[in-house]
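Annotated sample (chain length 212).
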Amino acid sequence: MPETIPLRLLIVDDQQSIGTLCATLGQRMGLLCFQAQSAAEALARLDSHAPDVMLADLLLGDRSGLELLTEVKKRLPLTEVAVMSAHGTIASAVQAMRLGAYDFVVKPFRVAELQLVLERMVEKVQSARRPQSRLSGGPGAALPCTDLEELERLTMHRVFEQVNGDKEKAQKLLGISRATLYRKIKRYGIQTRRQEEVTRETAKPMILLSQR
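Output written by the structure step:
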């Protein structure tokens, strides 16, 4: 029988604009969406509106998103959770995955990227409800990245894409030393921008103003 009950999505973010964006996307996917602006509010909803999938910000006012993730997985082990953060450090991403997160989404994210993560989480929840899927692990099963090296590679690429290849900004976001940054750039074949290109682009507005 086809599923008629929509899956529940809980969005936990203290930024109303992010919550609204995620809820709008979830509704377009046919999900029943709820929002919470703190970990306490999210935990209070678990009993009355137990979510099937969740998007949780890493930095919340009362507790961290990782603490919330731990509590949710303890109480609702089948709920799939993606952690979101504007501070896409490798350490945070790896820790989130070790605690049971489905994925780690770096802000600002593209709508298409977030939709893909949601679609995969929804597919995993739906597959878990089909006995044959658990036995066969069908070809359409969507699984998270469980390889920590691959997770590190994806996080590095996401951060460099976010900062347009700026090594200095990437180092600050990732929270690693310059030497470590350069080793990982070489290891994962990441495209970066030369410092003179960054300086030249930064100086463009000043040149235009001086010519007026």
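Annotation: The longest strand covers residues 80-85.
Annotation: DSSP finds ten helices and five strands in the chain.
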